[in-house]
Write a structure and sequence with these properties.
The complex is a heterodimer. In chain A, 0% of the residues lie in helices and 55% in strands. By secondary structure, chain A is an all-beta fold. In chain A, strands 2, 4, 5, 6, 9, 10 and 11 form a seven-stranded mixed β-sheet that branches. Chain A has a four-stranded antiparallel β-sheet with strand order 1-3-8-7, with no helix packed on it. In chain A, 37% of the residues are buried. The radius of gyration of chain B is 14 Å and the shape is globular. Classes of the chains: A mainly beta, B mainly beta. Chains A and B meet through strand 4, strand 5, strand 9 and strand 10 of A and strand 5, strand 9 and strand 10 of B.
Chain lengths: 113, 112
């Protein structure tokens, strides 16, 4: 199956700093990628749909100025958490579509101290 | 009403048992349906897609009822390794394309 990678897998940062998470489709091109967030014991919540070459589409309640998404190429989307706060600590997962199936990256565990 | 809802769980079943999960969705324009499995602190893995005619993969059977807008997953002869959270995923039309929404997940624990 298709492979999606994420980097970093785990990051700890201080409150007020920004963190960038990369999502790459390794063996296919993805015009659309999705960013999810998962808090402990909860399901995945869609944050935004990342579209190559255009602006991301954010879900209701997700601040676009706080969660910056850039999809500059067909194989890379980045999510930048700006001015991170402890409540942003979560598991962030990206996914991409290949042949009508959704493939997930391994996730990035963000801890803001 | 939530876009995708699942049985709350948790389901604790003995090995060898048959267990069924249901998932309802609210958008009648949804076209694709999936069951994913998620192990603790890992990313979701596709278990199976769900087709209108129903489909089976070994001990797993998935069914779709478009009229009632629900999908189901049946696991027969449960194994200890089936213990995980099962997530249903439904696509929803959005801005000329689709987005994929997860249900809340149902936790299954198979007991020896």
């Amino acid at each position: 199956g298709a492979v999606v990678s994420q980097h970093p897998s785990r990051v700890i940062c201080k409150s007020g700093t920004s963190v960038k998470i990369e999502c790459r489709s390794l063996d296919f091109q993805a015009t659309t990628m999705f960013w999810y967030r998962q808090f402990p014991k909860q399901s995945l919540m869609l944050m935004a749909t990342s579209n190559e070459g255009s602006k991301a589409t954010y879900e209701q309640g997700v601040e676009k100025d706080k969660f910056l998404i850039n999809h500059a190429s067909l194989t890379l989307s980045t999510l930048t958490v700006t001015s991170a706060h402890p409540e942003d600590s979560s598991f962030y997962i990206c996914s991409a579509i290949s042949a009508y199936e959704q493939y997930f990256g391994p996730g990035t565990r963000l801890t803001v101290t | 009403r939530k876009e995708v809802e699942q049985d709350p769980g948790p389901f604790n079943v003995p090995e060898g048992a048959t267990v069924a999960f249901n998932c309802t969705y609210s958008n009648s324009a949804s076209q694709s349906f999936f069951w994913y499995r998620q192990d603790c602190r890992k990313e979701p893995k596709l278990l199976m897609s769900v087709y209108s005619s129903g489909n089976e993969d070994g001990r797993f059977t998935a069914q779709l009822n478009r009229a009632s807008q629900y999908i189901s997953l049946l696991i027969r002869d449960s194994k200890l390794s089936d213990s995980a959270t099962y997530l249903c995923v439904v696509n929803i039309p959005a801005s000329g394309t689709y987005k994929y929404i997860f249900g809340t997940g149902t936790r299954l624990k198979v007991l020896a």
